[in-house]
Design goal:
Blueprint: E1 2-7, E2 24-33, H1 43-58, E3 62-67, E4 79-84, E5 99-104, E6 113-118, H2 119-126, H3 139-163, E7 177-178, H4 196-204
Helix pairs in contact: 1-3, 2-3
Length: about 220
């Protein structure tokens, strides 16, 4: 089943979610796919994406362990992320909106999952920030906005993985639609929280720590 993060026009606020368990970890392997070296994102943007995803999930005491793809055996990885750095997505939502990211849900709860994130669409999304001419922004600022777009899209897909469903909610992290005007704002628990039903579901399906001797987490 395909779960997707799309660009749209729904904005929501959700009440603070209070962690109720000790922190757990999720092993995520990132595979960058760019056709040519010139198409690859700068490492600073990729780090920013990881930091944004980790920040969102830290609100729920879930730690993201970024695993070096060359060191990690498949059995030690919870979610494999394909960062499509040059290809446009071939996925469209039911409303005709092109998605930023998508997740193939595993056949069994908390089994290995695969997510895809499309840089081309994240750039288009960031360019829609009201009253901002994205191409003329200083690189330092445009990098921040692009990192946030990518990181929040991935955080949303990880939500589908941990919750084991493609269901969306009216507010919070699991909204189907996010506004570009949110990108200049730092992520907060109020903005990217989980509703009570999802908080309960998350507690039922938090993977145990997967860090093992010999694996190397990377930023």
């Amino acid at each position: 089943m395909l779960a997707a993060f799309v660009v749209g026009a729904v904005l929501g606020i959700v009440a603070n979610s209070v962690p109720t368990e000790a922190p757990k970890s999720l092993a995520v392997k990132l595979i960058r796919r760019c056709a040519q070296q010139r198409d690859c994102l700068r490492e600073k943007i990729v780090r920013g994406m990881k930091d944004e995803t980790s920040k969102v999930w830290s609100f729920f005491d879930v730690r993201i362990d970024w695993i070096d793809p060359w060191d990690a055996p498949t059995s030690a990885v919870d979610v494999t992320v394909l960062l499509e750095e040059s290809a446009a997505p071939n996925v469209v939502s039911r409303t005709g909106v092109v998605v930023l990211a998508a997740l193939q849900l595993p056949d069994t709860p908390c089994g290995p999952g695969v997510a895809r994130v499309w840089v081309t669409e994240a750039r288009r999304y960031a360019a829609l920030i009201p009253d901002v001419h994205f191409p003329s922004l200083p690189p330092r600022l445009s990098d921040v906005f692009l990192s946030r777009a990518l990181g929040r899209a991935l955080a949303h897909e990880i939500g589908h993985y941990l919750l084991g469903t493609s269901r969306h909610t009216p507010r919070g992290l699991m909204r189907a639609r996010f506004l570009p005007l949110e990108l200049p704002e730092s992520a907060t628990r109020q903005r990217y929280g989980l509703d009570p039903v999802d908080r309960d579901a998350l507690r039922l399906c938090r993977p145990v720590a997967t860090s093992q001797e010999g694996l190397r987490a990377v930023r």
